[in-house]
User: Fold Acetyltransferase from Macroventuria anomochaeta.
Amino acid sequence: MDKRVWQWKRSVGSQEFLISTAKELLPHSFVQEAFADNAMFWAKPMSAENLKTMLDNSCTLGLYRVKSDGSQTPVGMARMVTDFATLAYLTDVYLKDDTRGLGLGKWVIHCCREIALDVPDLRFMLLLTGSEQAQQWYRRECGMERFGDEHALAAMGARRPALETSTRRTKLAEAIAASKHQSTDAAA
Ligand SMILES: CC(C)(COP(=O)(O)OP(=O)(O)OC[C@H]1O[C@@H](n2cnc3c(N)ncnc32)[C@H](O)[C@@H]1OP(=O)(O)O)[C@@H](O)C(=O)NCCC(=O)NCCS
Assistant:
């Protein structure tokens, strides 16, 4: 995992905000609450262990309101799933209700874009959305396009149930399942 930390500061009116990818700043409880918010309809809270795994393996931008005493309260997030070499998948863009409409969402997206531009052999910055408004937003802010005719590319995906039922019961599939090994000891 890339150990770099990205950070930006900005004032909006009299309020100070910070965006940081420092893992230790982002309370896991904030992410769980965000995932439980109906506004984030695609996500749901998960076990503490899975959440830690997710955050350990992502570059997550926390958006914080900074008080005059220097204390930071999380008010938003965005998550980049990236290998830091070729791909950056953007997901879980979220601001708490009372911080929307101030231009902070746009700021978060632009910071994600900067992180993607730091990926040296970037092939794509990707995201999935069903919202027409979001498509216009990402087109305007990040130059993203729907994959289609102009790229001669199709975006493909499968949710878990489709993956589970997709393998035909062939001898090859059974042999692969039977020969699966997993190791958790990297030094072994
Ligand atoms: C989407 C979201 C992050 C925008 O944050 P924000 O701080 O209100 O956004 P900004 O003030 O920076 O920018 C507002 C722009 O975002 C657009 N916008 C607002 N809500 C949006 C949404 N749900 N999807 C896409 N764009 C949205 C507005 O049209 C506005 O466009 P404008 O610049 O032409 O006026 C915020 O509304 C949010 O957290 N929504 C719930 C979670 C969500 O839907 N996330 C997915 C986003 S793709």
